[in-house]
Specification:
Blueprint (H helix, E strand, L loop, with lengths): L12 H10 L4 E5 L5 E5 H17 L7 E5 L4 H12 L3 E4 L6 H11 L3 E4 L4 H7 L8 E4 L14 E3 H5 L16 E6 L9 E5 H12 L11 E4 L6 H4 L1 H8 L2 E4 L6 H10 L4 E4 L1 H14 L8 E4 L6 H10 L3 E7 L6 E4 L11 H9 L8 E7 L2 E2 L8 E7 L21 E9 L5 E6 L4 E3 L2 E3 L1 H9 L4 E11 L3 E10 L7 H8 L11 E5 L12 H7 L7
Parallel strand pairs: 1-11, 3-4, 3-5, 4-8, 5-6, 6-7, 10-11, 10-12, 12-13, 13-14, 24-25
Antiparallel strand pairs: 1-2, 8-9, 14-15, 16-17, 16-18, 18-19, 19-20, 21-22, 23-24
Helix pairs in contact: 1-2, 1-9, 2-3, 7-9, 10-11
The structure holds adenosine-5'-diphosphate.
Length: 539
Amino acid sequence: MLGLMQNWQLTVDKIIEHAAINHTNREIVTRSVEGPIVRTTYGNIFTRAKKVSNWLLGQGIKLGDRVASLAWNSGHHMESWYGTMGIGAIMHTLNPRLFPEQLVYIINHAEDKIIFTDLTFLPILEAIHDKCPCVKAFVVFTDGANMPPTKLPNCHAYEDILQGQSDISIWGNFEENTACGLCYTSGTTGNPKGVLYSHRTNVLHTLLTMGADVMGLTAGDVILPVVPMFHANAWGIAFSAPACGSKLVMPGAKMDGASIYELLETEKVTFSAAVPTVWLMLLQYLESTNQKLSTLKQVVIGGAALPEHILRSFEDKYGVGIRHAWGMTETSPLGTLGTPGPEAANYSREEIIKTKLKQGRSPFGVELKIKRDGKTVPRDGETFGNLMVRGAAIAGAYFKNEGGDILDEEGFFDTGDVATIDEHGYMQITDRSKDVIKSGGEWIGTIDIENCAVGCEGVACAAVIGIYHPKWDERPLLIIEKKAGANPTKEDLMAHLNGKIAKWWMPDDVRFVETIPLGATGKINKIALRETFKDLKFG
Ligand code: ADP
């Protein structure tokens, strides 16, 4: 027997429509790539998104067609995003930090028909457009007056395409499992693979992220998503902010400490989200200029492990609460959030710090298990193995079935991370399965060593890789990028690590490099580091 409730399809157009009706004048503030701060509202975004839909329909875009964006976070990006998804076309967010050859591969693999872009990315597209014959038109987020001459064929200024379009367009009217967004993983191994979100999974993910123990967003919040919309929908904030009616502050292209600080203060931001490297830049800026944060209350840090000194600085020095998050493109992306639960009520400050450094617990809708040698291991906080995930908004296959069957016999996806789960459900990542160091048959997690090393005075960034050792198979090498003007030595680092990590985890050597290379998603590029140190041998 079926229930007798209304069949309200879970489609994301309802999110922006809800915001437009109930939070009509709530602002979306953008630092435009042209420079000035521009303001719009959910009401305007909705109306203009409808115009985008009508222009796309006029271009022959249909249900299931891919429309791409190569753009920073902005109000315009949101309009084109909802205008695309509303008519059942698929918004494919391109990551501008990818190499041109990877962009060409992704655009052709996705068969993108139209690309919306910022002025800043015109040179990238001009260099590759002739290798992407599927793209029939380009739209630049600017007006006719600011549109530069370009080699791109069929290229329009955004304001020009909206001119004369009707703001009436029928949205929705398709099944909730219809594809809605496409985001490629950065492809550290093999070609990038497309994660194809559906309307239903994006709506469910929005609902689960809004929970008080998850992101805990409210209509009163002013949210600054530094995390880009091309990183799994700005960790869902491009949906959850309008769903809550929160004000949005979009940083555009500028993510340095001074620019982020200016927006945080002038727009009275209460909530923000970004990877650790962004927060390092902000903290360094605050320290060098001796400034305080007057409105920021909560920051979500994820995408890479949260270093202890970032947690302590934010909470103890600046009075900002930190939530550590783990997730990946394939998990929409939130998988766990590190909000201490009732068992932490009587914890000491040091125990709270230890708990918050773990990646956190899974909200309802995300199931986790740790698997080693084909078996699920106990939740004892010690036994580590491959982290597996199943849930309401988790990838079941990649676009065009790249990589084949990606689920185990119980329908869990292998995250490629190595982790433990404790008796309270806190998951802790110890490594990526491809980065873990296998020493004498045991596993050494590189993340702990790196986090500990960045706490040493004068260290800007730390990375650990395994180096061949004739007796132990592999041993850790610690690679350090120094802070400008600082000069930590190998002895300083070994003394700093001593006693903080297991003795047999202590690096066999420390090397200093000018800069530690980062990949397209801002994470340490260990493949490049392994290449640099490929001739080094221990023992
Ligand atoms: P890619 O796998 O291409 O880098 P993602 O941006 O989806 O793509 O990254 C997901 C990965 O990032 C996770 O599998 C995990 O290794 C890492 N990660 C994300 N959040 C954290 C975190 N809080 N701590 C440690 N690692 C994290």
